[in-house]
Amino acid sequence: MVAHGSYRVGVIAVKGRGTPDRPAPGRVFLAGAEAARAVDEEASLGWGLSPFALVEAAGRNCARRLAEWSGLSLARLRVTALAGPGNNGADALVLLRALVLEHGLLPRNAAALLSRLPGPGEISPRAGAARALEAMGITVRPWDGGGEALLKSSRIVVDGIAGTGLSGPLRDIPLAMAAALNRAREGAAMGGEEDETEERPLVVSVDVPSGVGDAFRPPWPVVKADAVLAIEPVKLALYKPAARCFAGAVLPVGGIFPAALVEKYGGAELVGWESARARIPPVPPDACKYDRGVAEIRAGSAGSAGAARIAAKGAQAAGAGLVRLAVDSSLYPVLAASAGGVMVFEEGSAADDSGRFRPDALLLGPGWGRDAGRKAALEAAIRREGEGTPLVLDADAIALAKGRVFCGNTILTPHPGELANFAGVSKEELAADPLSILKDAAGKANAVILFKAAVLIIAGPEDSMPCLAVVDGMAPALGAGGSGDLLAGLCAGIAARVRAQSLRGGSAAPAGVFACACAAAALLIASAGKPASRRFADPLDLARAAAALAGDAWLP
Q1: DSSP codes joined into one string, 530-552
Q2: Closest Cα partner for 115 from 99, 130, 94?
Q3: Which of 165, 174, 342, 392 could cysteine-pair with 363, CB 3.0–4.6 Å?
Q4: Which of 57, 65, 138 is nearest to 97 (CA)?
Q5: Which DSSP helix (H) or strand (E) runs through 66?
Q6: Closest residue by Cα to residue 386 from 407, 412, 372
Q7: Range with the lowest mean pLDDT among 183-187, 415-419, 473-477?
Q8: Predicted confidence (pLDDT) at residue 454 exceeds the cutoff of 80
């Protein structure tokens, strides 16, 4: 799995709740640029909220969030705002004014650099905010090359250069402003050596790092932010894998638009582990191992025995009552001797056909290979999926399943190369537009796809609810072989338990594989973020951390 950085984690899921930066029960919805424009329009035309009132609320609430998050005493600090031509620029200017009026920033230590000064008689939120700063004795001037020195001398720089409405890369003055800000952040002196005694500025973007939008694709220029004051509805473009590493900590800022509007246009929602785990029922106090579900795994091949073992440990960690691992005869002696509670049997043996252990969920693929017999095993598993048994496909099983249409009860767990192959696109196309490609592939396959990248993106068929989720990972501990096998095992373990408990209660309700995938992804990321795992760790260490979290969440 790919991972970058070490920021706090959360899960984005349709109609979910909470995030570590915005604890439950606060609900944080997400939207694309078009939906965000619709929120603006309806707030003004339908609710009678003027653009001036909305910008005022956005700037003041962003200032409050920044002061809370940074924990810095602003009295002795220099703060500079960079304001482009749009509402992001207006928000940044109001934010700067609020820091002075409400949070102790001294006017002489505040400055604003504008892409252009307001024209004579111009009436707009941005023009009004700029004139208010000037009236307070705050430096307001147009951008020029000399502004870079001011950026370097600032402790905090507020990035309000551009918002999500960009249809292409930054250009002209906004590009020059962004480039200068990145140089200041990296500590590079203009035309000279780096001054190691100078503290680099903390860069905080309003809404998105300038350069990021729905159309963003690498290698477009973008501001590298330490944090983003993400005005709700939070912009979905922040969670493109190629963009997420530029955002730093994502800090949702609410209280600007009416909650009903935010929910109406929010096609997805930011939630945390607490909310994701709440979607999965706890284990009843009187549950036996069959009530907790049988997870059957077919994995491993010559040279890849570790993948099978890690996947099995993942299913155990997620709470499956019984884990059965089918392996090739060459792997049986090794894995059976170190099973640790996992039932290991040989592919094609009598134990393989035992009706006693009818699986509640099936996992195929980790380290499996693509030998002729694998296709037959996959076909048998797909038949069971049609009968209601949740199916999880990873690695080689995903390649073998290309072109198949499922019954809505399957989870695929591809990395970028596997998803590109499954969807029939190039890696470059996938990097440029992962959300559209992922949703299209999930719809065509009628399956849930859990895409493993710098963030984990989960998509289901369009006619299902929910149909999109993102786990905000950024977890360096997962940047190693085996973490994907662990994730697949977690999916299977949770799905097996949900299925078994549903049948135990006499309910014909579906297993809910989308919720299972979200919970598994959240569990993996939460496990990677535990203090004990902040080191280069064996995936089995992460499995132990996952087992502790899952037990705390789901055991009575």
Answers
A1: SGGG-SS--HHHHHHHHHHHHHH
A2: 130
A3: 392
A4: 138
A5: helix 51-70
A6: 407
A7: 473-477
A8: yes
Domain with CATH 3.40.1190.20 in the chain: 277-554
* pLDDT tens digit sequence for 481-517: 999 999 999 999 999 999 999 887 754 454 489 999 9
* Confidence (pLDDT) at 25: 45
Question: pTM for the whole thing?
Answer: 0.89
For the beta sheet containing 202-206, the strands, ordered from the edge strand earlier in sequence to the opposite edge, are: 139-142, 110-114, 79-83, 156-160, 202-206, 227-231, 249-253
Cα separation, 209 vs 181, whole angstroms:
11
Q: What is the DSSP letter of 236?
A: G
Residues 6+ apart with CB under 8 A from 474: 3, 4, 5, 6, 7, 9, 244, 245, 454, 455
Kindly report whether the peptide bond that precedes residue 120 is cis, defined as omega within 30 degrees of 0: no
What values do phi and psi take at 85, rounded to 5?
A: -80, -15
Residues 6+ apart with CB under 8 A from 227: 66, 69, 202, 203, 204, 205, 247, 248, 249, 250, 251
Angle between helices 87-103 and 125-135 (to 10 degrees): 30
CATH placement of domain 25-268: 3.40.50.10260
Indicate the helix (H) or strand (E) that contains 123: none
Place of tokens 């694309």: 32
Residue type, 378: L
Which residues does 356 contact at the CB level (< 8 Å), separation at least 6?
A: none
Q: Are strands 156-160 and 227-231 parallel, antiparallel or unpaired?
A: unpaired
Please write the tens of the pLDDT for every residue from 32-75: 999 999 999 999 999 999 999 999 999 999 999 999 999 999 99
- The CATH 3.40.50.10260 portion of the chain extends over 25-268
> Does 3.40.1190.20 match the CATH number of domain 277-554?
yes
Cross-strand bridge partners of residue 49: none
pLDDT value, residue 197:
42
**CA distance linking residue 39 with residue 46, whole number of Å:** 10
Handedness of CA 486, 487, 490, 496 (dihedral sign): negative
Q: At 266, which amino acid appears?
A: G
What's the pLDDT at 128? Answer: 96
Q: Which of 81, 174, 268 is nearest to 252 (CA)?
A: 268
How many Cα atoms sit within 13 Å of 346 on the Cβ side? 10
DSSP-derived secondary structure for 189-253: -TTS---TTSPPPEEEEESS-TT-STT--TTS-----SEEEEESSEEGGGGSHHHHTTT-EEEEE
Q: How far apart are CA 340 and CA 324, in angstroms?
A: 12
Which residue is listed with tokens 């292409």?
Answer: 168
Locus of tokens 């009187």: 286
Which value, in Å, is the radius of gyration of the alpha carbons in the chain? 26
